[in-house]
């Protein structure tokens, strides 16, 4: 039996309550000031692969959309990351964070040193959006429902615990506090309006679960490589390389 609009939204939100990556031990370490500089840098390097792939994911989505109104609405997501006009974009703001934590930004931008599991997870998400029905692709984006809280917690935790954190280096997360609610308001309405059968609702829930797996897998890879047991796979960034002497710019 098809759930009501309210019941279906509650089901989607429960997925976040149960599965969102704010519960991963790596994030607890990061926000609590327990990460070493190398662990923070590894996170910045690997997360950049995800950040840089988001506009590609959205472009793949838009290439399949025949409705101009939907394309217009979705286009802002690409501009938010790539930049437009006076908005420098989320990718540039992430590279500013790379500067702040003492990484060579050209190395980060090259996507070298990204863990294999990070690549597999992120590439799977891009492929999912490229190949799955549009409704499921939109549903997968609804992890944004849960993002403002993790951004707020991250800003608070990093500012309290790390010398590199300031308004400039935290600008990516501060900007997303305004961008994510706009995106999710549209995405949630689209899913609730169009998931009008039990089959579609189940598919949307599965898509959102898949996306939470994508995010969780990235942190599992970081934890395994740089926390415990600390086995960095071939090709992964090695601490002590492509780092800057922050004292020289202090």
CATH second-level architecture: Up-down Bundle
What is the count of distinct domains? 1
In this structure, how is the largest beta sheet organized? none
Quaternary status of these chains? Answer: single chain
Q: Report the top-level CATH class.
A: Mainly Alpha
| Count of helical regions | 11
**Could you give me the name of the CATH homologous superfamily?**
Heme oxygenase-like
Family: Belongs to the PqqC family.
Protein name: Pyrroloquinoline-quinone synthase
Enzyme class: oxidoreductase
Keywords: Oxidoreductase, PQQ biosynthesis
Descriptive keywords:
Pyrroloquinoline-quinone synthase, PqqC-like, Heme Oxygenase, Chain A, 250 residues, globular, 11 helices, PQQ biosynthesis, EC 1.3.3.11, mainly alpha
